[in-house]
Amino acid sequence: MGKRIDVTASHILWDNPFQAATFASHWDVHGGEWSVDGETLSGKCRTPNAFVFSRQRFPGNVLMDFHGRTVPPSTHDLDFMWNTDWDEKTQSRSSGYVVGIHGWWHGKL
């Protein structure tokens, strides 16, 4: 995107681990089966449109640093959306930011 990021001048907006005890107070689940094991969020879905949404808003430019992967037999990508909402009636999201990472690659890590 041609942007330079000054990490030392950037504010950390979220630095909390996933925890089973606080998961429901920070995240909204829409579809799929989700669980927290230690600090790891895991999910299974057999249909499209299974998401976990942060209840917190993140305005402006966002830099994400995380560890993630899909688990075979999944061939889906990891999608991240912020500053949006999910409409159950229309099964669609409102305007916001979306990034999809890496679901169609079938090589070995």
Give an overview in words:
The chain is mainly β and 109 residues long. The protein has one helix spanning 23-26, and strands at residues 27-30, 33-37, 40-44, 51-54, 78-82, 86-87, 92-93, 97-101. The strands form 4 sheets. The chain has a two-stranded antiparallel ribbon with strand order 1-4. It has a two-stranded antiparallel sheet with strand order 2-3. The chain has a two-stranded antiparallel sheet with strand order 5-8. The radius of gyration is 15 Å and the shape is globular.
SSE map:
Layout: H1 23-26, E1 27-30, E2 33-37, E3 40-44, E4 51-54, E5 78-82, E6 86-87, E7 92-93, E8 97-101
Antiparallel strand pairs: 1-4, 2-3, 5-8, 6-7
What radius of gyration results from the CA coordinates? Answer: 15 Å
Spatial strand arrangement across the major sheet:
1-4
Order of helices and strands: HEEEEEEEE
Number of helices: 1
> In this structure, how is the largest beta sheet organized?
2 strands, antiparallel
Shape: globular
Keywords:
single chain; 109 residues; mainly beta; two-stranded antiparallel ribbon; 1 helix
Concise account of the structure shown:
4% of the residues lie in helices and 29% in strands. By secondary structure, the protein is mainly β.
